[in-house]
């Protein structure tokens, strides 16, 4: 399943050129053309879906093994695996994609803010029970 106007679906079909690193029946990996660091690559399912929850599980099984392989072959000692869902979560292209971003130093690679919140143990326990019951 693909979308005719989707940038990543068009890359998969070869309508838009890419620096392909890997391809299988379900996965496509290529270098990011606006890299945060040397070796920044994307791993995408060939199944078109905007968010991770839109992708069938069997189309996700190769994603992390390929991201792991890309991290190894890049030579990165430190790296981020990043996947965003939705505009306010910083997703720009409406097709699920995983970034493998080498972090060679403090200036290159992904910069992340982590606005941690204070913990209310009673609320956390209630949330735990709620989520656990849905698993």
Oligomer: single chain
- Please trace the helix and strand order, writing H or E for each element: HEEEHEEH
> Biggest sheet: strands side by side, in what order?
1-2-3-5-4
Cα distance, first to last residue? Answer: 28 Å
Low-confidence stretches: none
| Named CATH topology | HIT family, subunit A
Task: Determine the structural class based on helices, strands and strand pairing.
Answer: alpha+beta
How large is the count of helical segments?
3
Reported for the largest beta sheet, the result is: 5 strands, antiparallel
CATH superfamily: HIT-like
Binned, the helix content reads 10-25%
The CATH architecture category equals: 2-Layer Sandwich
Question: What can you tell me about this protein's structure?
Answer:
- With about 140 residues, the protein is an alpha+beta fold.
- It has a single domain (about 5-135), classed as 2-Layer Sandwich (HIT family, subunit A), CATH 3.30.428.
- Helix content is about 25%, strand content about 15%.
- It is built from three helices and five strands, in the order αβββαββα.
- The protein has helices at about 5-15, 65-75, 120-135, and strands at about 20-25, 25-30, 40-45, 80, 100.
- It has a five-stranded antiparallel beta sheet, with helices on one face.
- A hairpin with a 3-residue loop joins strand 1 (about 20-25) and strand 2 (about 25-30).
- The longest helix has 14 residues, at about 120-135.
- The radius of gyration is 17 Å and the shape is globular.
- The chain starts with 6 loop residues before the first helix and ends with a helix.
